Amino acid sequence: MKKDLGLYLHIPFCIQKCGYCDFLSASGTGEEKEAYVQALEKEIRSYGDFAKGYRVSTVFVGGGTPSCLEAPQTERIFQAVRDTFDIERMPEISMEMNPGTVTPEKLQTYKNCGINRLSMGLQSVRDSNLKLLGRIHTYEAFLESYHLAREAGFQNINVDLISSLPGQTEASWREELETTAELSPEHISVYQLILEEGTPFYEKYAGHPELLPDEETSRAIYEVTAEVLAAYGFRQYEISNYAKEGRECRHNLKYWERGDYLGLGLGAASMVRNIRMSNTGDMKTYLEKCGEPKTMRTDVQFLEEPQQMEEFMFLGLRKTRGISKKEFRRVFGRDIELVYEKALEKLLSNGMLLEKKDRLYLSKEGVLLSNAVLSEFLFD
Amino acid sequence: MAGVDQSKIRNFCIIAHIDHGKSTLADRIIEKTGLLTEREMQSQVLDNMDLERERGITIKSQAVRIVYQAKDGEEYIFNLIDTPGHVDFNYEVSRSLAACDGAILVVDAAQGIEAQTLANVYLALDHDLDVFPVINKIDLPSAEPDRVKNEIEDVIGIEAQDAPLISAKMGLNIEEVLEKIVEKIPAPAGDAQAPLQALIFDSVYDSYKGVIVFCRIKEGSVKKGTKIRMMATGAVEEVVEVGYFGAGQFLPCDELSAGMVGYITASIKNVKDTRVGDTITDDENPCAEPLPGYKKVNPMVYCGVYPADGSKYQDLRDALDKLQLNDASLQFEPETSVALGFGFRCGFLGLLHLEIIQERLEREYNLDLVTTAPGVVYKVHKTNGEMMDLTNPSNLPDPSEIEYMEEPMVKAEIMVTTDFIGPIMDLCQERRGQYQGMEYMETTRALLKYHLPLNEIIYDFFDALKSRSRGYASFDYEMLGYERSDLVKLDILVNKEEVDALSFIVFEGSAYERGRKMCEKLKEEIPRQLFEIPIQAAIGSKIIARETVKAMRKDVLAKCYGGDISRKRKLLEKQKEGKKRMRQVGNVEIPQKAFMSVLKLDDK
């Protein structure tokens, strides 16, 4: 039987880099984009032998801004994927999209390629925030793109939001959430603003924490998110993800559940058979070696059992439903209570972790303090 | 060396307050006597430990032998013996002085006499040394050589009008000092034919030669093959080598005889056998009596020293063993703490000695340490008539078994400009000082005399003194003996659990204040955790102070990583790493530095 696989395809181009973003992306000329698409096709096709052992159930095209490619380029990429990989009958195929780069033609192309889920980077419903973040679109432009997508027949749409922005209060955030939820997308991801070194936001705010919401506000913003979204029929299923019934992102779940996924494109990360690795982040190297992925990998790491256990815990517990003790035993052949005796005792007794039959999951407080809680599962 | 005319030898030391230029003058003297080229000169030849150079103090007394061509056409042998300048090493200072026949008193032309200057001069005069003053730093715009000369005459009572006015830094008038050494410092007495009598003033351990004993030959002579006996410890060894001190190296010679300063090696394995102050004699032809003044130095200050990483316990033991080879005054024995695991209770001469040992362990042996609050040795008189020396607060018997306790007292002299007499008296008062009197040096400065409990000055007294006098006060002390006192053991409870490493003995009247400050300080030091943590100070079962570390409110990373798990892992690992630097007490993680930060509690 073929093993299950997810594919991640990275498109490292943006029209303009946002002030908070530290992902691998840059603006590119038409020639650069074309050269990249050709390289990506080549890389995909080089996996012919590998692909024989797998059946792909999810594809996720991320970036950067995948929607800044021309429609035929997107078609070629998907052609290469379909030519190389066996894709199941009802796959989830997601594409990230930046409002402002969407046209009815592109949407039609996406449909034709089999893309059945769109992830739209809204980030905020307030234009003043969008400007601050360095986004190229307004809320109005987002609405237009969103409705275009609906008209084109997309029935599974995610909207990304960023919380804890400078000046944000619990009340103003609640409003943003409600505005977004009323559009009734199938899925909402809420990421909190994180100052990453090397970004303009870091320069601007790292030395001025007073300009950002304080801890209590930030906590309230986090807590109110699940509450407001629940009222609109969204259920939180992971630390930063909320979905309508049955609309959880299957691809992202693979990350938390340690399924195999193959990253394709510049800097893309993979985990296959407990080996974690990334493609080179250097464009020149990538373009040269795309035909032989083995020669352009970095950070190749075979996960030993302890590391697998650590990941099982700190990834699995990000999900609201947590982890299954039986599953732990099935995977590792050992009882979780023996392996994590101290950590479990501590976290269950201080209420950070809850236990219900076979499952262990973070309490509300445990979610709010999840960094401290999850780090307990790393071995010395 | 044989055939050196005893009348051409000058054995002397330089005494000065910290920063008055002792080491710089020593450098210049060595330079001017031409034994070293300038290129060979390290900036401060006598201070060869990094640590000393950084702190501007001299720890281990050392000596150097130099040759001076005087204006009278004769060649003189100078033995310059360096002395530690700090009160912790008073006994070593005293032994170094005993090896000399005279001393140069260096006084800063701007600052004049300081408390330590006085203490050291008196010590030198006690040893019958001929002292002549030198006024240093006359290049400073604020120099007032005439005022300082008068001060020396008024306060110390030694002739100062013809004192050389020098700048050691600029190399000004150094020849004048050299001529004064020839003129003012007497040649050593002693009979080279008499039975051997030599004073040990220092010793170092060398892994090839064993213990190298630094000594001054008072009577008789010693050479390779002599069977020597340490009169206090009784150790007998055969001499392997004798020699004198080049600049930074040992230069062997045939014989050391009366009046000379040099070293002896005799394959001695343990520095403890060669106690500073002991007398060396010829085992086969012993002198009638040892030289006076030998005493065994006992540690005055104790604290727990623990490896930050518990697995480094054996490394710490090895390092302490090695340090002890060179420093017989360092004592240690194993102890365990619930909070800190396995470690050692170490005894030191004073707080500086403690700091030096700690820094050497960390630098030279690359150890990360956690030290507990230093304490003094208390005498506990029990109801059953027994008396115990208490060096670790955890060992305090139940209050019902204690009749009374005594604590060590010191006699302190504080030199201060008159503007700050008030604040300094307040400080001494707060530290339970008993006022003994005050003397005006001149119209602007005074010498305050107090009796103070040692445990009030081992924490941060010196810092407090400096900060409350804007750096103008100087301070010296000597041991006075024990006094009965109302003492209690103060315990610190973190999350309702007693942290043994934080317990200490305190004067009952100060317990509330200290407890409150401890709690406040710990509140700053202990990071917020998953739950609220009460920090309490208690005497027995009575809580006398409380603070609370609020629970952490939010620490969640709702970030979009894509499939890049390694970044997520790195974040968690960083968090975990932070915890490793903490000590687990019950459910609470206490940063290691919290155990030490509680030492500095003066908030004025």
TrEMBL record, chain A:
* SMART domains membership: Elp3
What is its subcellular localisation?
A: Cytoplasm
- Using the record, list the residue span of the signal peptide; answer none if the entry has no such feature: none
Bilayer-spanning residue ranges: none
- Pfam families recorded for this chain? HemN_C, Radical_SAM
Q: Do you know which InterPro entries this protein is assigned to? A: Aldolase_TIM, Coproporphyrinogen-III_oxidase, Elp3/MiaA/NifB-like_rSAM, HemN_C, HemW-like, rSAM, rSAM_sf
Keywords of the record, alphabetical order, are: 4Fe-4S, Chaperone, Cytoplasm, Heme, Iron, Iron-sulfur, Metal-binding, S-adenosyl-L-methionine
Q: Which SUPFAM superfamilies match?
A: Radical SAM enzymes
Q: Does the keyword Iron-sulfur apply?
A: yes
The main place the protein resides is cytoplasm
Q: Which Gene3D superfamilies match?
A: Aldolase class I (3.20.20.70)
Pinpoint the Radical SAM core domain residues: 1-235
Instruction: Please report which protein family the annotation says this sequence is part of.
Output: Belongs to the anaerobic coproporphyrinogen-III oxidase family. HemW subfamily.
Described purpose of this protein according to its UniProt entry? Probably acts as a heme chaperone, transferring heme to an unknown acceptor. Binds one molecule of heme per monomer, possibly covalently. Binds 1 [4Fe-4S] cluster. The cluster is coordinated with 3 cysteines and an exchangeable S-adenosyl-L-methionine.
Record protein name field: Heme chaperone HemW
Protein species of origin:
Blautia celeris
Automatic annotation (TrEMBL), chain B:
The annotated topology with respect to the bilayer is: Peripheral membrane protein
Q: What does this protein do?
A: Required for accurate and efficient protein synthesis under certain stress conditions. May act as a fidelity factor of the translation reaction, by catalyzing a one-codon backward translocation of tRNAs on improperly translocated ribosomes. Back-translocation proceeds from a post-translocation (POST) complex to a pre-translocation (PRE) complex, thus giving elongation factor G a second chance to translocate the tRNAs correctly. Binds to ribosomes in a GTP-dependent manner.
Q: What does the UniProt keyword field contain?
A: Cell membrane, Elongation factor, GTP-binding, Hydrolase, Membrane, Nucleotide-binding, Protein biosynthesis
Matches recorded under InterPro entries: EF-4, EFG_III/V, EFG_V-like, EFTu-like_2, G_TR_CS, LepA_C_sf, LepA_CTD, LepA_IV
What EC number(s) does the entry state?
A: 3.6.5.n1
Q: Tell me the protein's name.
A: Elongation factor 4
- PROSITE patterns, per database record: G_TR_1, G_TR_2
Question: What compartments host this protein?
Answer: Cell membrane
Gene giving rise to this polypeptide:
lepA
Q: Which Gene3D superfamilies match?
A: 3.30.70.240, Elongation factor 4, C-terminal domain, Elongation Factor G (Translational Gtpase), domain 3, P-loop containing nucleotide triphosphate hydrolases, Translation factors
Broad enzyme group: hydrolase
Regarding protein family, the annotation reads: Belongs to the TRAFAC class translation factor GTPase superfamily. Classic translation factor GTPase family. LepA subfamily.
The reaction(s) this protein catalyses: GTP + H2O = GDP + phosphate + H(+)
Q: Which residues form the Tr-type G domain?
A: 7-189
Name a GO molecular-function annotation: translation elongation factor activity
